[in-house]
Amino acid sequence: MNSSDSLNHDSMRVDKWLWAARFFKTRSIAKTAIEGGKVHHEGERVKVSKEIRIGMELTIQQGFDKKTVVIKALSAKRGGAPQAQLLYEETPTSIARRELISSQRKLNNLARPDHRPNKKDRRQINKFKQENNFSDDWLDYTN
């Protein structure tokens, strides 16, 4: 058995760690996200083969969420969610930022009407527009 076969966990590839920490379902999805610029270390994009160590801080973007995590442990095996959560700790500023953005998204959704306008509603909208001289060419006057 050579030294590369031994379980040396002082550093490991970032794609493997992201998979083990359950940020991504497969290593190939983790690789695609890294190549797409969704994972950063110290404000710089990382490469798939980047060696990470305990104490490093990564910024990971998944959909709308952008998490900043500090690596607490390394694992080459993918375990359950409780074990995966022991591998990292999200920073307090990251948690606060995500909660703020999430609440703003929820407030934006409240501004939407509950349903599409039906025929009667559309007639009322058109009548209102005609009575108040609203038309599509009002944009010409704003320039």
Automatic annotation (TrEMBL):
Residues 12-75 form the RNA-binding S4 domain. It comes from the Bacteria. InterPro entries: HSP15, S4_RNA-bd, S4_RNA-bd_sf. GO terms for biological process: cellular response to heat. Residues 131-143 have a biased composition (Polar residues). GO terms for molecular function: DNA binding; ribosomal large subunit binding; single-stranded RNA binding. Keywords: DNA-binding, RNA-binding. PROSITE patterns: S4. Residues 104-143 are annotated as: Disordered. Residues 117-126 have a biased composition (Basic residues). The keyword Phosphoprotein does not apply. Belongs to the HSP15 family. This is Heat shock protein 15. It comes from Acinetobacter qingfengensis.
